[in-house]
Design a protein that fits this description.
It is built from 7 helices and 17 strands. The chain is an alpha+beta fold and about 240 residues long. It binds uracil.
């Protein structure tokens, strides 16, 4: 339960004073009935909302899979450049739906976003880092030597990358599974073995697989099974 005005502010409808005016003027219906008391307690998990005659989805919890295209920053907001948040409805940012980890601007593929800050934090915390799989195209042939070098771990300038799995799926293309999530990690690992990554695409993040039917630039909410699996990855109970 929460106050109607607080719910509307959190959903990005307006400032506290704006939504209070709106409610007093009769602009808001809860479960089909006009409510004029901004302080009325409502059950945000079940109540339906209408604002100025338009239905408004009032859920405060979202878990989203985005097929990231190249050219967007993975950030909540940037003054100069477009971000992945530009692909979602504005209300999602208002309720705190945030990317979990980062993909480089030119990386495509699976990005998971959630309103659950604890889930976000746990999936990224070093002790619990989940596996991430990428398809990497490189500027030269991949060989068993590269596979072996990835398998033992690589010495980079500022850290030692843990062992990672590299599977060669084409002359210049590999599937890489890493456990860590350091800045430019995959590109730097290839660089360390003499190959530059020319295209990088993320296929999975923990239990979550990129939905092959989701076109680049599109997103969808996770299914219940996908949500349950990610909470299990984070060793958390799914909140009720
Ligand atoms: N590793 C990289 O180098 N870039 C990414 O976007 C993700 C992992």
């Amino acid at each position: 339960m929460l106050r109607l005005d607080r719910w509307l502010v959190t959903l990005g409808v307006g400032s506290r004073s704006e939504v209070q005016k709106l409610v007093r003027r009769g602009g808001v219906k809860v479960n089909g009935t006009t409510v004029t008391d901004p302080g009325k307690q409502v059950d945000e998990s079940t109540a339906s909302l209408q604002v100025q005659g338009q239905p408004l989805d009032g859920r405060l919890t979202r878990h989203v899979m985005l097929h990231k295209p190249a050219g967007l920053l993975t950030a909540a907001r940037d003054k100069k450049q477009p971000t992945v948040m530009d692909l979602l409805p504005e209300a999602y940012a208002a309720i705190g739906c945030m990317p979990v980890g980062r993909l480089d601007k030119d990386t495509t593929g699976l990005l998971f976003l959630t309103t659950d800050g604890e889930l976000n934090h746990r999936l990224l915390s070093p002790g619990r880092h989940v596996d991430k799989t990428y398809r990497a195209e490189t500027d030269g042939a991949l060989t068993q030597e590269h596979v072996d070098a990835f398998a033992v771990g690589l010495h980079l300038s500022d850290f030692d990358a843990q062992p990672a799995k590299l599977e060669i799926i084409g002359p210049d293309t590999g599937l890489v599974t890493v456990h860590e999530g350091k800045f430019h990690q995959v590109k730097r690992m290839f660089s360390a073995v003499g190959r530059e990554v020319t295209a990088l695409h993320r296929l999975s993040f923990g239990s979550l697989r990129l939905d092959e039917t989701l076109p680049e630039g599109e997103w969808r909410e996770l299914t219940e099974d996908e949500i349950a699996a990610l909470y299990a990855d984070a060793q958390m109970e799914v909140p009720t």
